[in-house]
Amino acid sequence: xxxxxxxxxxxxxxxxxxxxxxILPEVGEEGQRRLKQARVLLVGAGGLGSxxxxxxxxxxxxxxxxxxxxxxxxxxxxxxVLHGTRDVGRLKVDSARDRLADLNPNVHLEPWPVRLDRHxxxxxxxxxxxxxxxxxxxxxxYLVNDACVLAGRPNVYASIFRFEGQASIFAAPxxxxxxxxxxxxxxxxxxxxxxxxxxxxVLPGLLGVIQATEVIKLLLGLGEPLVGRLxxxxxxxxxxxxxxxxxxxxxxxxxxxxxxxxxxxEAFCAxxxxxxxxxxxxxxxRELAARLAAGxxxxxxxxxxxxxxxxxxxxxxxxxPLSELDQHLAGLPRDRDLVxxxxxxxxxxxxxxxxxxxxxxxxxNLAGGLARWIAEFGPPPA
Length: 382
Ligand SMILES: [Zn+2]
What we know:
By secondary structure, the chain is an alpha/beta fold.
């Protein structure tokens, strides 16, 4: 945090405008100047982004970056209160800029009428102090998460569906990230979107205001932020619950940090091709490398014998030699895809059949084994 001397001063107009903040000892003039100094990136100017942007602008956050490539549609107005009827057909970032500038002309607004993607996300995230995730799809949610982890910026997250919502802060120092909670996206088509399943219009308002509250607390260093907690909101029962979230040491983003650049999220969320029942599915080395680079939570299992393992192996693999496979069954995870490999893919195919017979359903074989991997990528690092 910058010291008080580095913070921008408040104008007379701002002194008047923020009077109710200034008399709060926990905010005061120094806190208000911290807000003025802050740069917040809002991803999505929709249901969550609307209340978040309105309250952050009203609160005097000095710089708001708004990313949204979409246009205002009449069916948005039931919940996206940033936009008005006369804005239908306009870019959401343009409509948002006009409304926010009217609410608080002291705020510097930067509209980004682009789709956040793996090529622009890191640069945008790095240019801000923290990010508000107001996205409505899994691909962008993983993208925002990973960019925040890589850039070291907190990700103030919320999501909504029908009458329920959830919120948390990911990628804060020491705290978990979205991948710790959801290592893998749900199979495509399993979870309906709000467009398909509907949403009570006031619900994103509730959750977006929670996001704005957490942003202001983080910027001011106040209270207990939602780091390591998942807040669950049930609007019908009007019940708020919070669950403890732990960091997953095996998380490719914030744990092992094997995720070093942003992968192809459309491919990641599309999932692997379905396996034929009765036959063991295979990855080519290239497919496996792509899944690993995308941060898919795979367990690599080397079924060769110990002397072979000692010479060379894939990074992150565990050893379960075919000759003693039955002793390793209990220790193998059942909640993620197991990818078996040996030297050329024959022993691992046999091992895969044994695992299938033992009730493992998520078993894959590396086609061509380590030999083909090395032919395509060279020897793995020792
Ligand atoms: Zn994580």
